User: Which sequence fits this backbone?
C-alpha cells in the first residue's frame, strides 16, 4: 500500500533537500518546490473563492473592501521595493498578488504561495482598524514569501514517506500532496488535520511581517494590542481559526516587545 502510494506520489527526480532562505539566512527543507506550490495555490484559491461569498466593490461592505485592497497593495509594493533594493527581486518570481475579503464569522486570514490573500470579515472586529489589518496581513504574507508553506509541506511529506523520497519532486496534481496542502492551509482542509507553524516560523513572520507593514506606512506598535486581542479571543468558547495554525501565547507577546522597536526603524508614516 505504502509502495503504491509512493509510486504515484513521485513524478520525477531532481536532487534538492535543504536551501538557505535568501532573506532570513535560515536553512529550510524544500522537497516541495515553491513553483509547484504556487501552481497548487492558484487552483485551490480559485476553488475557495468560488465556494465562498467574496465581498465586492459594489456591496454594502464597499468601504471594507477598499480598505483590504489598499492595505494589500501598500504591503505588496513595500515588499517589492525591499526585495529589489537587496537585489533579491527574483525571489518574488511568480507572485501575482490578489487580495480578497470573504464573508465569514471565522476570525481568520491567510496568504497562499504566489501572493493569494484572504481576509475573513470575522477578523475585522478583532483588527479594529486598518493598521490591525496590516499587522495580520503582513504576518500572513511573510509566511508565504519566506516559503514557510513549502517548508511545512516538505516536513509533512518527509514525516509521512520517510527518507526514501527526500530529494524527489512530487507531482503537483497528486491527491496525497493536495491533502497535505489542505493541512497547511486550513481553509481548504479536506481533513481536520492542521499543521501549525513552528515557533521559528511564527517569530520570522512577526519580524518580517511587521517590517513590511511599517514600510507600507502602518504603525508596528499596533501589533501588540492586536495579538493581545487575538489571544483574548482565544480564551473564549469561539476560538479564532487563525490560532490553530498560529499559536499565540505570552511568550509570543514578550518576543513582540523586542520585534516592535526593530520594526519602528522601518516605519514611514503615511503623509495623508
Ligand atoms: Zn503565523
Assistant:
Amino acid at each position: 500500500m505504502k509502495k503504491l502510494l509512493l509510486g504515484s506520489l513521485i513524478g520525477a527526480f531532481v536532487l534538492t533537500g535543504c536551501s538557505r532562505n535568501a532573506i532570513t539566512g535560515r536553512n529550510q527543507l524544500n522537497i516541495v518546490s515553491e513553483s509547484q506550490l504556487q501552481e497548487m495555490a492558484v487552483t485551490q484559491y480559485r476553488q475557495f473563492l468560488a465556494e465562498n461569498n467574496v465581498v465586492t466593490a459594489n456591496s454594502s461592505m464597499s468601504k471594507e473592501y477598499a480598505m483590504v485592497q489598499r492595505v494589500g497593495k501598500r504591503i505588496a509594493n513595500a515588499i517589492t521595493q525591499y526585495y529589489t533594493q537587496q537585489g533579491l527581486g527574483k525571489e518574488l518570481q511568480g507572485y501575482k498578488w490578489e487580495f480578497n475579503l470573504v464573508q465569514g464569522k471565522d476570525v481568520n486570514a491567510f496568504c497562499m504561495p504566489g501572493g493569494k490573500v484572504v481576509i475573513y470579515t470575522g477578523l475585522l472586529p478583532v483588527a479594529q482598524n486598518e493598521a490591525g489589518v496590516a499587522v495580520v496581513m503582513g504576518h500572513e504574507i511573510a509566511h508565504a514569501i519566506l516559503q514557510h508553506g513549502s517548508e511545512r509541506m516538505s516536513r509533512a511529506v518527509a514525516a509521512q514517506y520517510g527518507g526514501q523520497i527526500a530529494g524527489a519532486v512530487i507531482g503537483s496534481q497528486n491527491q496525497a500532496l493536495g491533502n497535505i496542502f489542505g493541512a497547511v492551509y486550513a481553509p481548504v482542509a479536506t481533513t481536520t488535520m492542521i499543521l501549525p507553524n513552528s515557533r521559528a516560523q511564527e517569530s520570522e513572520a512577526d519580524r518580517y511581517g511587521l517590517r513590511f507593514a511599517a514600510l507600507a506606512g502602518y504603525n508596528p506598535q499596533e501589533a501588540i494590542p492586536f495579538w493581545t486581542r487575538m489571544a483574548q479571543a482565544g480564551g473564549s468558547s469561539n476560538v479564532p481559526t487563525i490560532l490553530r495554525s498560529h499559536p499565540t501565547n505570552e511568550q509570543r507577546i514578550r518576543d513582540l516587545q523586542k520585534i516592535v522597536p526593530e520594526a519602528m526603524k522601518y516605519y514611514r508614516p503615511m503623509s495623508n
